[in-house]
Design brief:
By secondary structure, the chain is an alpha/beta fold. Helix content is 40%, strand content 19%. Bound molecules: 1,4-dihydronicotinamide adenine dinucleotide (NAI) and magnesium ion.
Length: 356
């Protein structure tokens, strides 16, 4: 007889950030503690004060050895960064982008659902439940390019899009694998009729990968028509895969269709698990409501669900998801952005009570 092994300790670096970031992360932590205790999940946390506040005091969003520090963790949980007075490119390029790129987080995962109790701006959204899989490290967001003849009439700017066989194959594979665990349907966002080099290449490589997943159905849609369908028929989608730029735009559009930015989660994943993946709500630091205790914590809590899935705790993830659904369904446990009047703490307590 062998006794079951103690579950291994997993380490999480927590970066609450600015504004409502710390408020919603406190809530996500409370939910993780509750569900973790119930399922015997051992997570150990370390907090980092990297933020715009740190930038104004020290001149840097994070210390020089930040990437080295984070490298040893199993996951990173982030609130939001950004604050008036600090240019947004400082908070983005000083923290978020270096982390995404150093840890080759090549998948940006954005699930979208229309929940009972959350009003979509669409008249009849129906049953909406899909995931946008955005390529997160190459494509249109490359650093290759430059400016010439600044200040002259012939001034010009060039920026190269970079699509690699490796990069397109791995994001397509991720989308097909994910579809297998869902409804088995992938939509690939393209524009190969107008962009004549990179996107026909994208189409070719995606089709090659699709052939490896005969059990998954696949459609290619031009990005313009696809944007219209997100609004007109959002029920039809299961997994939507797109390049960095297309995925960025589609995921915000999808979050708007679902009703509130306050509930939207995201994961920046290295599916190989060689490097830590990062989980963060889609919303920013919301300076307009920061410090008032009214931020919707669901986006951060749902991001923690994605983290639980990534760390191999699907049962705990499912339970938190059910608690989110139950909490959103009751008017008295909805925050102001959803038309309710509950505080962040009240929503957190409702989630925790549901989980106990
Ligand atoms: P934002 O997402 O912070 O706020 C947009 C609007 O949505 C505001 O009216 C806000 O009150 C509301 N809102 C956002 N999250 C909410 C929540 N959880 N509950 C209730 N209401 C919520 O976007 P904004 O105002 O464009 O940016 C503010 C700062 O956040 C900027 O410095 C920006 O650069 C930064 N930002 C950071 C992100 C990140 O850390 N990943 C992402 C987006 C913005
Ligand atoms: Mg965006």
């Amino acid at each position: 007889m062998t006794t079951p092994a103690e579950p291994a300790m997993q380490t999480v670096a927590v970066i609450p950030g600015d504004g409502i970031g710390p408020e919603v992360i406190t809530s996500a932590r409370a939910v993780l503690d509750t569900v973790g205790a119930k399922h015997g999940i051992k997570l150990s946390y370390k907090d980092f004060d990297w933020s715009c506040e740190r930038y104004t005091q020290t001149g840097a969003m994070m210390p020089e050895d930040a990437i080295e520090t984070l490298r040893g963790f199993d996951a990173i949980l982030l609130g939001a960064v950004g604050w008036p007075g600090v240019p947004d490119h400082v908070s983005l390029w000083g923290l978020l982008i270096p982390i995404r790129r150093a840890f080759r987080q090549y998948v940006n995962l954005r699930p979208i659902k229309v929940f009972d109790g959350v009003e979509s701006p669409l008249r009849a959204p129906g049953h909406v439940d899909f995931v946008v899989v955005r390529e997160n490290v190459e494509g249109e967001y490359s650093e290759i390019g430059g400016r010439l003849n600044r200040g002259f009439p012939e001034e010009m700017a060039v920026q190269e899009s970079v699509f690699t066989r490796l990069g397109v194959s791995r994001i397509a594979d991720y989308a097909f694998e994910l579809a297998r665990s869902r409804r088995g349907y992938v939509t690939s966002a393209t524009k190969s009729n107008g962009i004549v080099h990179t996107l026909p290449f994208w189409d070719e490589v995606v089709a090659e990968r699709a052939a490896q997943f005969p059990d998954v159905r696949m459609d290619s849609e031009h990005i313009d028509a696809l944007a219209a369908k997100f609004v007109l028929q959002p029920q039809r989608f299961d997994v939507v895969v797109g390049s960095n730029l297309f995925g960025d735009i589609l995921s915000d559009l999808a979050a708007a269709v679902a009703g509130s930015i306050g509930i939207a989660p995201s994961g920046n994943l290295d599916p190989t698990k060689e490097y830590p993946s990062m989980f963060e709500p889609v919303h920013g630091s919301a300076p307009d409501i920061a410090g008032r205790g009214i931020a919707n914590p669901i986006g951060a809590v749902w991001s923690a669900v994605l983290m639980l899935e990534h760390l191999g705790h699907p049962d705990a993830a499912r339970e938190v998801m059910a608690a989110i659904e139950a909490t959103l369904a009751k008017p008295e446990t909805r925050t102001g952005d959803l038309g309710g009047s509950a505080s962040t703490v009240e929503v957190t307590e409702a989630l925790v009570a549901q989980l106990r």
